[in-house]
Amino acid sequence: MKMNHKDKKGNVTELKDLGLNHLKNIINYIERRAKEGVTIAFGGSGCSAEDMCYDEETYYGKRARKELNYKNYVNELKRRENELFEKIEALKSTLVGEMFADMEAKDRIHNLKMELKGIKPQGSEFDCLGCGS
């Protein structure tokens, strides 16, 4: 199922297109908000002004994380990290033990490990202009 993230400016991005650092920042934000409380406003209207209703509730912990789709972000992060681990292992299996023959694969392994650790490989752009991650 295709999941989207909507930022504070209203831009919509598929979760699969978010950078790892951005996903981690969103997960940290949701965890912080779950402790502080998340207020959800809801309402509706009928045929006239008298039929209009408005209410809001503040949720904490597990319920707050559910309202903010926490599991979707965590699952996407895990999926992407597993993908990177698999790429690293595949590259490791191509190493032959000779410096010059292994140089390109070792460089790619190094860049993938940097990506996993949240360090930007040289020449990469910011993933999120809003938060700079």
**Proportion of residues in β-strands:** 15-25%
Number of helical segments with 4 or more residues:
4
Strand line-up in the sheet with most strands: 1-2
Helix content: 40-55%
Structural class: alpha+beta
Q: How far apart, in Å, are the first and last alpha carbons?
A: 25 Å
Instruction: Give the SSE string.
Output: EEHEEHHH
Tally of separate domains: 1
Overall geometry comes to: elongated
Tell me the number of strands.
Answer: 4
Tell me what the structure shows.
With 133 residues, the protein is of the alpha+beta class. It has helices spanning 20-36, 61-67, 70-92, 99-117; strands at 4-6, 12-14, 38-44, 53-59. A two-stranded antiparallel ribbon has the order 1-2. Strands 3-4 form a two-stranded antiparallel ribbon.
Keywords:
133 residues, alpha+beta, two-stranded antiparallel ribbon
What's the layout of helices and strands?
Layout: E1 4-6, E2 12-14, H1 20-36, E3 38-44, E4 53-59, H2 61-67, H3 70-92, H4 99-117
Antiparallel strand pairs: 1-2, 3-4
Concise description?
By secondary structure, the chain is an alpha+beta fold. It has helices at 20-36, 61-67, 70-92, 99-117, and strands spanning 4-6, 12-14, 38-44, 53-59.
